[in-house]
């Protein structure tokens, strides 16, 4: 199954000020998540951002908020966004959820497992999720894949949402997101 712009939402999980320094390749993950969020904003893909206990862990990094000016920010104390009942009806009404954020083996994993249990088609962007250790990252991806979540890359998201080089935004998206050095 392919990701479809009209059926999908981007969910950015817990990329917060006090959590980021602990994850493996934090700067790379942030740059790649920002790239993905900018693609989503450019294509009009709805975006939801979750924050885990923001009073204690801080808020989403400002650079990410700038990349998604229309995003809805929700907070939670459960590790899973589904268990936390923080996801807006607009996200739950769509069949597909594209997921990035942290940590791969905790909040991302639990959210993805429960989205799958709720019947959603879930696409985890492997190069835009992170954990404190590479081993936990890889275990989280493997477990999600084992439940039917699709493990994808940022470029897969871009090309599937566009579907064709004849898409009216293809030339712009190609120049903006595929040319030159990318994160």
TrEMBL record:
Domain Isochorismatase-like: start-end pairs: 9-155
Signal peptide residue numbers: none
UniProt-listed CDD domains: YcaC_related
Pfam families: Isochorismatase
Entry keyword Transferase: no
Gene Ontology MF terms in the entry: hydrolase activity
InterPro entries xrefs: Isochorismatase-like_dom, Isochorismatase-like_sf, Isochorismatase_domain
Keyword annotations from UniProtKB, A to Z: Hydrolase
Protein name: Hydrolase
Organism: Crenobacter cavernae
């Amino acid at each position: 199954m392919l990701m479809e712009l009209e059926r999908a939402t981007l969910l950015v999980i817990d990329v917060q000020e006090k959590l980021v320094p602990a994850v493996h390749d934090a700067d790379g993950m942030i740059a790649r998540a920002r790239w993905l969020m900018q693609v989503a904003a450019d294509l009009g893909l709805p975006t939801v951002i979750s924050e885990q206990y923001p009073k204690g862990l801080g808020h989403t990094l400002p650079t990410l908020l700038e990349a998604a000016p229309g995003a809805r920010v929700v907070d939670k104390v459960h590790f899973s966004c589904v268990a936390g009942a923080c996801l807006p009806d607009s996200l739950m009404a769509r069949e597909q959820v594209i997921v990035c954020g942290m940590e791969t083996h905790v909040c991302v994993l639990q959210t993805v497992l429960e989205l799958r249990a709720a019947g959603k088609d879930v696409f985890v962007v492997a190069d835009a999720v992170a954990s404190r250790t590479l081993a936990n990252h890889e275990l989280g991806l493997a477990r999600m894949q084992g439940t039917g979540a699709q493990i994808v890359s940022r470029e897969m998201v871009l090309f599937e949402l566009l579907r064709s080089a004849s898409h009216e935004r293809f030339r712009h998206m190609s120049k903006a997101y595929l040319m030159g050095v990318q994160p």
